[in-house]
Write a structure and sequence with these properties.
The chain is mainly alpha-helical. Helix content is about 70%, strand content about 5%. The protein has 16 helices and 4 strands. The N terminus is likely disordered. Belongs to the cyclin family.
Amino acid sequence: MRLIQNREAFSDITRSTNNQEHVQSCKKNSSNSKHYIILNANDLINRQNKIFNHSAAVVTHSTNLQYENILGNIDSTEYEKEEKFMLDVTDVTEYTEDIFKYLYKLDKEIVAQFLNKKYTINEVINKETLFNWIIKIHMIFGFLEETLYLTLYIIEKYQFLAQQSSSHSEELQLLAITSLFIAAKYEEIVLPRTVYYSLQTDGNYSINDIINFERIILRTINYDLSFANPLNFLRRLTLIDNFDLPRRTIAKYLLEITSIDSKTFIHFPRAQCAAASLFLSRRMFGKHEWDSKFVDYSGGYKKKDIVFICKLIIKFLLSPIVHSNLQHKYESTRYLKASIICKEWVLAILKQQRKRRSKKNKKYSKLNEDINY
């Protein structure tokens, strides 16, 4: 027990030291470097020289966004993690096809469980509040993204099997924190002590409450934590996309939207959502192609199979902000301010559509005047 406490104390000190060093390096580099997001000249929308807070990024907007020298202001740890993952994948290339063949099959089996799932208004409100809160706790603990996706899946599966959707908010809070507790055991290497989970509930639930409810959840889901994590599908697709960090980061934000907004996307396979997220991210950078390689690496999803999901994602981006913690998370420079960039891009597209409609209406009105004359 003393060893675990010492290790946690050491990790806290190391984390705070790294944060201080990162802040100092950002201050030092921000005055010497400029990071641009460049647009195509034909689609200029007269919105230039908008400077983001705490960075030297000059942002311009168009229907086709492209990056130039954007990596200098990013936390390198995220990039290094992904690099290591890609190296790990190349070490087991002989098993890659079999692994993803199993994951695609598991993905469709999971979706089949929720085909008849419908949400009431109260369930939607409770789930939006719950997921927004669990994102905050996930950020506080500094867990991996895989842990968040597994947590959301455990919540959905437990509620579906136990028919607990009508639970009170206090019970939902216990369900959420315990699901995170289980998912962290499954995905993480270094874990916080159980008392920290209890503290995040403001003392509403004790350590024993969490441990006892853990048993209930695991018995209800029959100890089955098999899950086709959508990040696995997205990372495989980034191999075809030349492992481009800006496009992958925005795709991660769009993919997380499909997991958070479960009422809209729960009936779609995770691989299909990952393909739609990368496809839409590439569109933001002026890359419209989706050739046979992308189809093969996405699990067989063609452009016609993912356009509808892209429209649903755009609809989410245009809707009022409900998951404020998700928005705040991806406003940081660590995630390339992905939520801001996506919002601005969608608004720019909407503005262009309105201009086209107004010109079209004027044309028809003038034509009617000529006919009447």
